[in-house]
Amino acid sequence: MIRRKRRPALARAEALGCIPVRNRAVVEERLENGTLRLSVPVGVHPWIARLSAWLGAPPPEPPRRRIELDRLGTAVWERLDGVATLGEIAAAFAREHRLPAREAEAAVGRFVRELGRRGLVGLR
């Protein structure tokens, strides 16, 4: 088993200065209620790819993980333009939803971290 080294936690100011960037492989689908469904390809197990090659079949299409965002998640996702920092996104979210700045920073930060864990975004 490969163990990844844990990166030290970023200081608040450093974290808010990061720029979230969408994964280019993510496909967006707008739902009837105005929210989004996101899907991202998931890697195929190597033994399945080898089995397909051995059988002479084309490589299998990678499965896709689907995630449905609620109204607030959709609002944050739409602000992830690869230019705005996490702090700017949180400030706009706080203004738009009339939240205290710290509460918006915490909520947006947790949401972006979860998107990152699922492979939908990265941080610059």
Give the arrangement of secondary structure elements:
Layout: H1 12-16, E1 20-22, E2 27-30, E3 36-41, H2 46-55, E4 64-68, H3 71-79, H4 86-97, H5 101-117, E5 121-123
Antiparallel strand pairs: 1-5, 2-3, 3-4
Helix pairs in contact: 4-5
Short description:
The protein is 43% helix and 17% strand.
Could you explain the architecture of this structure?
The protein is an alpha+beta fold and 124 residues long. It has one domain: Orthogonal Bundle (Arc Repressor Mutant, subunit A), CATH 1.10.10. Helix content is 43%, strand content 17%. The chain contains 5 helices and 5 strands; from the N terminus they run H-E-E-E-H-E-H-H-H-E. The chain has helices spanning 12-16, 46-55, 71-79, 86-97, 101-117; strands spanning 20-22, 27-30, 36-41, 64-68, 121-123. A 3-stranded antiparallel beta sheet has the order 2-3-4, with no helix packed on it. Strands 1-5 form a two-stranded antiparallel ribbon. A hairpin with a 5-residue loop joins strand 2 (27-30) and strand 3 (36-41). The protein starts with 11 loop residues before the first helix and ends with a strand.
Enumerate how many helices there are, as a single number.
5
How many strand units? 5
Spatial order of the strands in the main sheet?
2-3-4
- The helix-strand sequence is HEEEHEHHHE
Q: Which runs of at least 5 residues are low in confidence (pLDDT < 50)? A: none
CATH topology: Arc Repressor Mutant, subunit A
The coarse silhouette is globular
Question: Which CATH class is shown?
Answer: Mainly Alpha
Estimate the strand proportion: 15-25%
Give the helix/strand class.
alpha+beta
CATH architectural category: Orthogonal Bundle
